[in-house]
Amino acid sequence: MKEITGAAALVSALKSEGVRHIFGIPGGAIIPVYDVLYEEPSVRHILVRHEQAAAHAADGYARALGKPGVCMATSGPGACNLVTGILNAYMDSSPVVAITGQVPTSFLGTDAFQEADLLSLMLPITKHNFLVKSVQELVEAVRKAFQIAMAGRPGPVHIDLPRDVQTSKAEVKIPAEVLRRRKERYEPDPHRVEEAVKLIEEAERPVLFAGGGVIWSGASPELVELAELLGAPVVTSLMGKGSIPEDHPLSLGMLGMHGRRAANLAVTECDLLIGVGVRFSDRSTGDARHFAPKAKIIHIDVDSVEIGKLVRADVPIVGDAKRTLREILKALRARAKRGVRSEWRERILQMRREFAPKMDYDDVPLKPQRVIKEIMEVLDEDSVVVTEVGQCQMWAAHYYTVRGPRKFISSGGLGTMGFGFPASLGAKVALPHTKVVDVAGDGSFLMNSQELATAVENEINVVCCIFDNSYLGMVKQWQDLFYGGRRSQTYLGKSPDFVKLAEAYGAWGDRVTRPGEMAPKLREALKCGKPAVLDVVIDPEEHVLPMVPAGGKLDQMIVGD
Amino acid sequence: MRTRIFSVLCENVAGVMMRVSRCFTRRQINMDSITVGIEPSGLARIIILFQADDKMTAFMRKILLRLEPILEVQVLEPENSIAREICLFKTRKLEEEEMSETIRLVQSAGGKVLEIREGSLIGEIGGNHEEVERLLSSLGQGMLKEVARSGQVYLSRNNRGSS
Fold first, then answer.
1. CA distance B18 to chain A (A)
2. Residues with Cβ < 8 Å from A254, sequence gap 6 or more?
3. Which tens digits make up the pLDDT trace of A370-400?
4. Over the stretch B40-80, which tens digit does the pLDDT of each residue have?
5. Would the CB atoms of A181 and B62 count as touching at under 8 Å?
6. Measured in Å, how far apart are chain A's first and last C-alpha atoms?
7. Where does A339-443 show beta strands of DSSP type E?
8. Which of A107, A254, A284, B116 would you call most buried, defined as having the most Cβ atoms within 10 angstroms of its Cβ?
9. β-strand partners of B49
10. How large is the angle between the packed helices B129-139 and B96-108, nearest 10 degrees?
C-alpha cells in the first residue's frame, strides 16, 4: 500500500463520502489540505469571504439537499468564526461536517499563534467532535463524522486537524464501515404504537403537529396520508414548514408566536395532538402549561431527549417519523374504518377561510404581505426560499405558501441574523437549476453582505430580496409593543444604498417601491444571469401580526387589522 | 430531590469526562461525586452522584446516552448496590498520648495506620460513605492536616442495573 499524507487521506476520505462541495477559507494551519484540493477536480471548493458564511452555506446546502454539507477553515480565528454557524446547525438539526486546521500537536496547549482550544469550543455545539492525532485516526474520524451527522436526529460534527497530521505520511485504509456499538432507535415500540392508535381512534378533534423531523426522515407522504385518513389538520413548526404542501386543504400553516390564527386555534381546540419530529420549542408552544389544553398528546421523535422535555407526552414514541407513521397507518387501516371526522374537518376549513391571511394591500410604502404575495406569483413549487432572521423571516413563515419539503430554509432555534444569504448560496450550489430566493431584512443582510463577492465570483445566482425598513425590525416591534415605543438603538438609517452595494460587487441591483413592481423585477432578477439584490422599501411601521407575546397562550394573540 | 447514582459505561477516550460533566453543569446540577476507572475490557466506568428529582434523572440519563462515546447508563439504587469509598488522611504532628488515642480510634473504626513519620500519622479508611464520615468527624478538623478521598463508587448487585 502506498503512503499518503494526512491531507491527501482527508480529501480521499471526503470523496469516498460523496463530498462534491466544500465551503471554506484557507489559512496557515490548513494549507496542506488546500494544496491537495488544488489538483482535485472532483471537489469544488467555494471560497467564501467570512468563515461564518462557510458554516451557514454548508448548513443551507445540507437542508436543501438532505445530505451533509461540508465547511472548512483554518485554526484559531477561522475556526472560531465557524462557531455561530455550527451552533445554528446544531439547534436546527442540520448535518454539517466542519473541518478545521489546528496548530501542530507539539504546540497544542501552548497558546501558539492562531491556536484555539477547539475541542472544548466545539464540544457543546456539535453532536460529536474529534481532535485527530494520526492519519489513520483521521480517516476513521471522517467516516464516523458523516455517519454521526446523519444518524437519527441529524446534526453537526467537527474534526480538528493538527498541521503535522496533515503533512505526516502513513499507509491508510479507508474503512468500509465504522461499527457503531450504540444503535439509534428507529423502530417504534409496537405497544406504544398500539396506544397511539387507540387514542387516535377515540379522538374527535385530532391535530397533527409536524416538525423538521418529518422532513429529515422523508415522512411527508405518510404525514399527508394520515391527515387525510383522519380529516385532521396539520400545523407545523418553523422547521416543519413544507412537510405538508401548504396549499393542501388540511394545512393550517405554522403555529406559535407568529403562527397563523387558525393553526393556534386548532391546537387550542383539539382533543388529540400528534407531534411528529418536533421539539415543542417555546416559540411554538407559548406557555407550555397551557399548550393544547384539552388534548392528549402523542409525541413521536427519534431523539428520546426531546420527549417529555418541555411538554408532557401521554404516549411517548421514540422512533423515526416515517417508520412510526407507517406503523400507525398500517394499524389504522387494519381496523374498522372510523372515517374522516367531518365535523372537525368542516371547522378546520371554516377557520382556514375565516383567518386566511390578508395580503392584497396596495399601500405605499409597500406592505411586506404584498411583497410576499408577488414573490409567490413568480416562484414555482420547486423554488427554495431561504430567510434571514427577524420580521422578514416571520413574514415569510406566516405568509409564504411552501409546497414541499426542503423548499423553505430558515434559522429557527438559534435565530441567527446573517444566516439567510450564505445559506441561500449553499442551497443554490446544492440545487443549481432551482430558483433560490433569500427573503432578507436590511439588518440581517448586512451581517453577511460581504458574501456578495462569493456569489459573484462563483456565479451563484441567488436573488436577495431585502425587506428594507431601515430598522432592526423585530427588536423595534418589541420596543413598540412592550417598551412604550422607546426605539433604543434599532434605527439603522439609510446607509447603505443596497442597489449600489450590489453593483459595487458586480451583482445586479434594483429597487422596488410600489405595488406591482416586485413580481416583474423578481422575474428580471432571476433571469439576469448574475446574483441579484432587490432593495424592497417597505413600511417601517408594519409589525408582524398576529403575535403571541413570549410565554403567552396560543389563543390569545395580538392581532392586526 | 434526593441522591441519584449513575453508573456510566463509556469509551476510554480523551475528553469523555468533560463531555459528561458539562451536561450536568449546563443543567445547573452540581455533582456530589464523580469517579472513573478503566474496566478490563478497556472501557471506562464513571460513577456519578448528584441531587435531582425523578424527571431530571430520567432526562439526564437520556442526555448522557446521546453522547457518542457513551454506551450505557445504569441508574443505581442504594439498596440494590454496594457502595465503597476510600479515604487517606494525614494528621498534624501529635503528642505521644494523642498518637496512641488516634491509632486506637482509627483501628476501632476499621481503618489502617499506614505510616507514622515525624509525629504525624497517615491512615486509611475504606468502607461506605458513612463509615468514612464517622471516622473523619471523630478525628476532628483540628487533628486532620490533609484528606484525600476517592469519591464514592457503586456496583450494582444485579446482573443488570435498573436502567
1. 8
2. A235, A236, A237, A238, A240, A241, A260, A263, A397, A398
3. 999 999 999 999 999 999 999 999 999 999 9
4. 999 999 999 999 999 999 999 999 999 999 999 999 999 99
5. no
6. 73
7. 384-387, 408-409, 436-441
8. A284
9. B5, B33
10. 160
B18 and A CB contact within 8 Å: yes
Residue type, A258: H
Amino acid identity for residue A151 in this structure? A
Question: What pLDDT is stored for residue B141 in this prediction?
Answer: 85
Sheet holding A296-301, edge to edge: A251-254, A234-236, A206-210, A272-276, A296-301, A315-318
pLDDT of residue A174: 73
Contact A305 B63 (CB under 8 A): yes
Domain range enclosing A107? 3-171
Based on the domain organization, do A302 and A406 belong to the same domain?
A: no
Rounded to 5°, the CA angle A58-A59-A65 comes to 85
Nearest residue of B to residue A125, measured between CA atoms: B19
Report helix, strand or coil for A376.
helix
Q: Which residue of A148, A303, A305 is in closest CB contact with B68?
A: A148
Confidence of residue A62 (pLDDT cuts 50, 70, 90): very high
Say whether pLDDT at A178 is over 80: no
Q: Among residues 52-71 of chain B, which lie with CB inside 8 Å of chain A? A: 55, 58-59, 62-63, 65-68, 70-71
Beta-ladder partners of B72 = B9
Q: Is A145 found in the same domain as A262?
A: no
Inter-CA distances, A523 with A251, A259, A366, A376, A510, Å: 28, 29, 18, 11, 12
Residue A183, pLDDT > 90, answer no
Per-residue confidence (pLDDT) for residue B162, from 0 to 100 = 46
Q: Convert the pLDDT of each residue in A341-366 to its tens digit.
A: 889 999 999 999 999 999 999 999 99
Which residues have a Cβ under 8 Å from the Cβ of A260 and sit 6 or more positions away?
A252, A253, A254, A355, A357, A398
| Nearest chain B CA: its distance from A222 CA (Å) | 27
For residue A176, pLDDT beyond 70: no
Domains of chain B: 2-76 (3.30.70.260), 83-153 (3.30.70.1150)
Same domain, A403 and A460: yes
Is there a single domain that holds both residue A443 and residue A350? no
Instruction: Indicate the pLDDT class of residue A559, thresholds 50, 70 and 90.
Output: confident
Whether A552 is covered by a domain: the verdict is no
By C-alpha distance, the chain B residue nearest A309 is B59
CB A108 within 8 A of CB A102: yes
Provide the phi-psi class of A240: left if phi over 0, else alpha when psi is between -120 and 50, else beta.
Answer: alpha
Model pLDDT, residue A504: 98
Instruction: Return the CATH number at A336.
Output: 3.40.50.1220
CA atoms of A382 and A405, how far apart (whole Å): 10
Q: Are A128 and A229 contained in the same domain?
A: no
Q: CA of B63: which chain A residue's CA is closest?
A: A305
A131 touches chain B (CB under 8 A): yes
* Residue A155: closest C-alpha in chain B: B66
Among residues A354, A377, A393, which one ends one of the domains? A354
3-state secondary structure of B46: strand
CB contacts of B67 in chain A (<8 Å) are 128
Taking the Cβ of residue B15 and every Cβ of chain A, the question of whether any pair is shorter than 8 Å is answered with yes
Concatenating the DSSP letter of every residue in A223-283 gives HHHHHHHHT--EEE-STTTTSS-TTSTTEEEE-STT--HHHHHHHHH-SEEEEES----HH
Question: What ipTM was predicted for this assembly?
Answer: 0.92
**CATH code, domain with A63:** 3.40.50.970
Q: Cβ B66–A303 below 8 Å, yes or no? A: yes
| Mean confidence (pLDDT) of chain A | 96
Partners of residue A366 on adjacent β-strands: A538
